[in-house]
Amino acid sequence: xxxxxKFEPARFLSFRDQEVCERVxxxxxxxxxxxxxxxxxxxxIEDEGNLFFQFATHFVSGIKRALEEGRKFVVILPAPWPNxxxxxxxxxxxxxxxxxxxxxxxDEWADQDGNAAPADxxxxxxxxxxxxxxxxxxxxxxxxxxxxxxxxxxxxxxYSRMIEDLGGADVCYGGIGWCGHIAFFxxxxxxxFGDDIDAYLEAGARLV
Length: 208
Description:
The protein has helices spanning 18-25, 29-32, 48-68, 84-94, 125-132, 159-165, 197-202; strands at residues 73-77, 101-105, 148-149, 171-172. With 208 residues, it is α/β, with parallel strands linked by helices. Strands 3-2-1-4 form a 4-stranded parallel sheet, with helices on one face.
C-alpha cells in the first residue's frame, strides 16, 4: 500500500474544512444516489462512453418529444463539450428538425470591460459550440441562428428574462468545476446571499 499524504486545501478555495471533505469522500457509491428530496434524482454512470451516449440520447429525445408535441424546446448548454458531435450525428441520422429549438449557453469568457470573447476566438465557448455542435447539424435541420443565444455585454442583464419569455428551460445541462463553480459562478460569490436561497434564485444572469 502506498504512503498516505495529507495536505491542506489551497487557500484560495472558499471551503477548506478538511474534516467535512474527508467525511464526504467516504460516502459509498450506493449512498450517493440517495437524497431526502424525492424530486432530486441521482444516477451514477461510471463508464465514459455510456455517459456520452446517455447525454446524446437524452438531448435528442427532448428535441423530438417537443417537436411531436408542437412546442418549443428551450435548453441551457455548457461548453466546451466535444461529444456534442454525437448529438449532431443523431439529429442528422434521423432527419430531426431543430427549427423549434432555442439554445442558451450558460456562460462565456469576458474581458475586464465585460466584452464577451469574439465568436472566432478558439478559447471561447461560442467558438466550440459552433465547432462541435451547430456547424455539424445539417443546415436544413439546424435551429435558426437567431435562436442560438450566448451571453454578451448587451444582453446579459436580460438573459434570464429571455429564457423566461420562452416559457423557461426544458432542461439545463451542466457540470461542476473542480473547485465548485457553476457557470463561472465561483463558490465564494454565493456568500453574498448567505442562507437566503430565494435571493440567490432571483439573482439571474450577470457578469462575474
